[in-house]
Amino acid sequence: MEITLQKGDFTAVEAEALVLFHFEQDDRLLETTAAVNDAAGSIIGQVIEAGDFRGEHLEHFLLYSQGSMATKRILLMGLGKREEFSVHALREAAAQSLRTLRDRRQPRAVLPIPFDSKFPLDLEDTAEACVLGGMLGLYQFTELRTRDLDNIKDFDSLIILSQKDSKQLAARVDRAKAMASGIYLARDLVTLPPNLATPTILAERVGEMAEQAGVNFHLIEKEEAEKLGMGAFLAVAQGSDEPGLMVALDYQPSKDDEPPVVLVGKGITFDSGGISIKPSKDMDRMKHDMAGAAAVIGAIQVVAALRLPLRVVGLIPFTENLPSGKAYKPGDVIHSLSGLNIEVINTDAEGRMILADALTYAGRYEPQAIVDLATLTGACIVALGDDVAGLMGTDDELLARLQAAGEESGEKVWPLPLWDSYFKLMKSDVADLKNVDGRKAGAITAAIFLKQFVPEGVPWAHLDIAGCAWEEKGKPLVPKGATGMGVHLLVRLLQEWQPLS
Questions:
Q1: Phi, psi angle pair for 326, to nearest 5°
Q2: Domain spans of the chain?
Q3: N or C: which end of the chain has fewer CB within 10 A?
Q4: Model pLDDT for residues 329-377, shown as the tens digit of each residue
Q5: Could you report the per-residue pLDDT of 250-302, keeping only the tens digit for each?
Q6: Beta strand pairing status for 470-471 and 481-482?
Q7: What Å distances lie between residue 291 and 159, 185, 363, 448, CA to CA?
Q8: What are the residue ranges of helices labelled H in 106-166?
Q9: Number of neighbouring beta carbons within 10 Å of residue 27
Q10: Which pairing describes strands 245-251 and 60-64: parallel, antiparallel, or unpaired?
Q11: How many Å apart are CA 98 and CA 155, to the nearest integer?
Q12: Is 352 a catalytic residue?
């Protein structure tokens, strides 16, 4: 989709439709909408006065301009009640607007930024929200289709009209496009089938992204992992004929060797459960067990595109978890990179195994902080549902920043306790700890396990995104399928980054 920013008369720009917003039960039209209403013979006011359009959130109504302006149609989109309005609501409204037009095969639209002294957001925030929301709502994965290609509905161009022309406004539009591109990348990676998203294939694809973005790329293969002593990671990988690989991405905006913020993403490219094999029902969904890795990759791409003045490192352990004669087994004791010995109770608790070595490895960078993302536990879905990620960690300030970033991005997170008393559930009779306990506090005990491998003194946060990685039905900003959860959240965190106190 081509997105252009223009300054001009919205009645003179040619397109299939002009998108206008309206607040619910608001007697006063936004100034932009009022101007179009005047040009179109008060047709908008008549529709609202008749009660055919109320302006409820995501409610829409299509009118025909009947030659009163260059655009053929006017799409009214509701913003909901003014007192409940948020930037996230505007993103959703923009997404719903463009998707409605695309589905009607009207692939070119004009969206005037509401110029209104009483609009809740300033011009720049409004433009960024409209572009980001519109792009996210239009996402679709079509690269593997070979039939009925003519039935795929595309959206060609969006013209953002503004009453002023400024470099700052253009920069915010570019920022939205960069963010959407990173989220698209994460969604694509999660959507790819596991035979086309093996550790080797994904590592190659990430390497190409890194080269284009100007990010340092290092690939830790089996031989190096063995020399390092990454026993937990290699134990999971040994069940597959596909070699396990750990990717290290290092975005360095300056030559100064400053301490980075390290992002760690779980990269299980397919999870059968291993010897503790999962039920066959819905096992195909286990291709998205690398959604944490995808979020880190997408976030690094955005960070590089925005040229943030902060060193950011991404660590992604990629492997499959399969049963075979070589696979690790319940009862095995595995020696990890940290030096701790782990008793394997369940091979389906493999994500924490590979993250254990990645978290330990992160200490080599002497980081300011570490944030990991993982589709780690079904218990987190039971606790918080499908729309909220579990948040745990060791630093209250870091956790608060992540929660604030979640509110700003619309990717909500909620804290769960991480008290040391939970560790008693993870004690092993034969080793330093076991990799899983029973059903009690499953999301918390998984995080307690990870905590043992975080370098001492480093602020750390863990995001369990098990419920948020895949959308079953579809929402305005998230069509059915991979969500790209975590990209926007992480970038918001890093955009506002200041050293932790």
A1: -100, -5
A2: 2-161, 179-495
A3: C
A4: 999 999 999 999 999 999 999 999 999 999 999 999 999 999 999 999 9
A5: 999 988 888 999 999 999 999 999 999 999 998 999 999 999 999 999 999 99
A6: antiparallel
A7: 32, 11, 23, 21
A8: 123-137
A9: 7
A10: unpaired
A11: 8
A12: yes
| Token digits of residue 87 | 């930037």
From the list 135, 164, 501, 450, the residue with the least C-alpha distance to 317 is 450
Which candidate in 81, 278, 412, 475 is catalytic?
Answer: 278
Q: What is the three-state SS of 261-292?
A: EEEEECEEEEECCCCCCCCCCCHHHHHHHHHH
Radius of gyration of the chain (CA): 24
| Interatomic CA distance for residues 88 and 447, integer angstroms | 30
* DSSP H helices in 51-166: 87-103, 123-137
CATH architecture of 179-495: 3-Layer(aba) Sandwich (3.40)
Phi, psi of 140 (to 5 degrees): -155, 145
Fold held by 2-161: Leucine Aminopeptidase, subunit E; domain 1 (3.40.220)
Of the residues 108, 175, 287, 352, which is catalytic? 352
Q: Report the b/e string of 339-361 with b at 16+ CB within 10 A.
A: ebbbbbbebbbbbbbbbbbbbbb
C-alpha 257, offset from chain centre: 28
223 phi and psi angles, rounded to 5 deg: -60, -45
473: tokens are 């039905």
Element (H, E) at 409: helix 396-409
